[in-house]
Every structure is written in structure tokens, then in C-alpha cells.
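Entry type: protein chain
Record version: 2
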Amino acid sequence: MNKIAIVTGTRGMDGALLSEQLIQKDYKVYGLIRRNSQGLDLGNAKHLENNPLLEVVEGDLLDQTSLNNLCKLARPDLFFNMAAQSHVGSSFDQPCYTSQVTGLGVLYCLEAIRNSGIHTKFLQASTSELFGGLTGQPANEETPFHPRSPYGVAKLYGHWITRNYREAYKLFACTTICFNHEHSTRGPNFVTRKITQAVAKIKAGKQDKLYLGNLDAKRDWGYAPDFTRGMIDILTKTTEPSDFVLATGETHSVREFCEHAFNYVELDYKDYVAVDPRFYRPAEVDVLIGDYSKINKLLGWEPTVTFKDLVEMMVSYDLALLNPE
């Protein structure tokens, strides 16, 4: 008999990758998806549409009834909350919506588990944006938080309410403080995918310039499937719930990302990249770098893809989209 997992945000980058990895481990996955005008669009999980181990369920993170019903239907062994309004820049334009979905949505998931009485292991996907600007020292699970965006503040609520339910109700509730992680399925409104799509279009003669904000912002960029693998390991291989940083321990600037991406197609980024002040945020986060020694020591987890290889993977994908064979 298959073990069962719930994954919210199934159509997003992380949700789709996580669902696929769970199915590969023979889990029956119930994917929670909010209906839009196109119906139950699977987005990044579309390749799993006809897989018998994926059951798509219509629901909303802000609808307690739909979450309660999902828990009663699935009776899951594992519950991964991957749903959020996850774009930092957009959170400044939509602070109320971001706070509701990204913050309170976590509470509704935890309440659904608590009310169901099912012994489910829960994981909340937290973010390095909890830390705000760091001084250059790698952040670990004990580093003080100072979020600098509505998204980061909402995620901090989700992080703390998960810890509160762990302590107050003895739920097996974990968090992963994920530093930046990327994949070819990253949304085009994120800077990494914006860069790789522009590189492909510029190489094909379909775009002239790429306009970006702070080129000197530094991030700890990892490979998304490594991170979702770590999430599964946390819920299946640990005996005590806790919080874990997922990172690479390296930092690279947006400028370096541009340089590697354009070099891959034998172009000089300086000829094509221009700074546009419109893309600066009201509160900038200059440096984010993580210390993943806790999960490495406990579970042996470590990143497998280098920064340069990650950039080249994403550029290759976007080149192939423009020039399908």
C-alpha cells in the first residue's frame, strides 16, 4: 500500500519537483491547486497529469474547510506546504494578499492537521528572506531574523507558527529555511529566469537589451531538486522535528549570474545588460549566504550542482524552447 503525501502549491516550481520526487518513491500525492479561469491548471506539474499516483484536489490555502476536507480525504503520512505568494518584489505591491496567503495560509494548514487528529508529519518551506541583509557571515538555524519585505515578514509568521504548533501541540512540524534555489521551470518574473530567457532571445536576435535592478546583490543559489530532496529526507529520516537551513554555502552576485549566462552563448553581458532604477526594491537585501552544516551532519545532505552548471542548465533550457528540434 502506498504511503500518502499532501503537497500544496503543486503547480509551482518546488511543488511540482517535490511531487515528482515523492511519486518516484511510490507515494500517492494529493496536490492542492487553486482553480483559476483556465480550470485546474497543473502548471509545472503538467507532465504528471496522467500519473495514477497524483490526485489533483481543488482548494485554497485560505479556505479552512477545503484544507480540513483534504486531510480527511487523504489521511496523509506527510504534508508539505509549498504554496505562497513567493515573489519578493510583488509583495511590496500586494502586501495584504501576500500576508494572508504566505503567512496565515500556514496556520490554516496546521489547524487542518490538528483538527483531523491524524499523525501527520508537516513541513513548512521557509526562506532566507527571513534574515534580511546579512553581514557576509553564513546564516544558520540560530541566526536572528530581520526580514526586509512583506514576503519575508509573512514567511516569518509561517515559520514561527509552525514552531509554535510543534511546541504547543506536539505536532511533528519542521521548517526548511531555503536559500535561493533555481530550476529551468522557475517563473519568468524571477531575476534568474528573466536573465536566462533574455540571453536566449538576444542570442536569437529577438531581444536587444536586458534591464535589471541591483546587479551587486549577492545570493546563495542552489539547485531546486537538491532542496526538495532535502525536504523529503527531513520528514522521512529524522526522528525529532526541527528547523533546517538548505543552502550551498557560496554567494554569487546577479552580475556574476549575467556574466556566466552570456558567456555560455559567447556574448559579453556588458553589451546587453542595463540597470533600470524601476527594478530596485524599497528595502534591498544585499547579501544572503547559508550554513547547511546541521542537515549535512544529521542526514548527509549536500548540494550536487555548481553555480556555473546551474546557470548553464537554465540557459540551455531556454535556448531549446526557442529552437525546438
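Comment: The mean pLDDT is 93.
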